[in-house]
Automatic annotation (TrEMBL):
Organism: Phanerochaete carnosa (strain HHB-10118-sp)
Signal peptide range in chain numbering: 1-22
PANTHER family, per database record: SERINE CARBOXYPEPTIDASE CTSA-4.1 (PTHR11802:SF113), SERINE PROTEASE FAMILY S10 SERINE CARBOXYPEPTIDASE (PTHR11802)
Keyword field contains Protease: yes
Gene Ontology biological-process entries: proteolysis
Protein name as it appears in the record: carboxypeptidase C
Swiss-Prot/TrEMBL keywords: Carboxypeptidase, Glycoprotein, Hydrolase, Protease, Signal
InterPro entries, per the entry: AB_hydrolase_fold, Peptidase_S10
Molecular function GO terms recorded: serine-type carboxypeptidase activity
TM stretches of this protein: none
UniProt-listed Enzyme Commission number(s): 3.4.16.5
Source taxon at top rank: Eukaryota
Length: 176
């Protein structure tokens, strides 16, 4: 599951960084200056199940100080924590902060595909898709949600992204 979440966040970060102006870092799969980039500098979270439900944990790398992920475990919506896990957080890109929900696959999170869900518009929170369409729960009244046995996370890991900045829980610092 960690590989699905980490891979998804990395892809989203790469996609988002292409729209951010500034100097680009070279990307090399082997050799070069990134060969031993994590030697004592970066320690990824090995078990996301150990994350807090009340405070964000920041995942950052010293080579990219203006880019990180803030994540915490969520205990709402799915109703099957023994089968799948849920996380919420922000992908921080300089002064911009993209909010996401992430739900593990109920089947095989380590091998199932990762889906990035964004509602159209632009300008529509992905919460609409989460709570009204394909998410692991449905809103049934003002205070409650019900389990959705037909959710896409039955067979896939799903990111729900609030984009662009200013939509849903995504925001920018200093009026950016």
């Amino acid at each position: 599951m960690f590989s699905a979440l980490a891979g998804g966040v990395a892809l989203l970060g790469l996609a988002a960084s292409s729209v951010v102006s500034g100097a680009q870092q070279p990307f090399a799969l082997s050799g070069g200056k990134f060969e031993s980039y994590d030697a004592g500098l970066f320690s990824p979270v090995e078990d996301l199940g150990l994350l807090s439900t009340s405070e964000f944990t920041a995942l950052a790398h010293p080579t990219f100080p203006n880019y990180n992920v803030r994540i915490k475990k969520s205990d709402f919506c799915d109703g099957t924590p023994q089968i799948s896990r849920a996380f919420t957080g922000y992908i921080d890109i300089e002064a911009r902060h993209l909010f996401f929900y992430f739900f593990e696959s109920r089947s095989n999170p380590d091998k199932d595909d990762v889906i990035f869900w964004t509602n159209g518009g632009p300008g529509c929170s992905s919460s609409l898709g989460l709570f009204m369409e394909l998410g692991p729960c449905r809103v049934n009244d003002v205070h409650n949600v019900t389990f959705n046995p037909y959710s896409w996370n039955e067979n896939a890991n799903i990111f729900f992204i609030d984009q662009p900045i200013g939509v849903g829980f995504s925001y920018a610092d200093h009026g950016e």
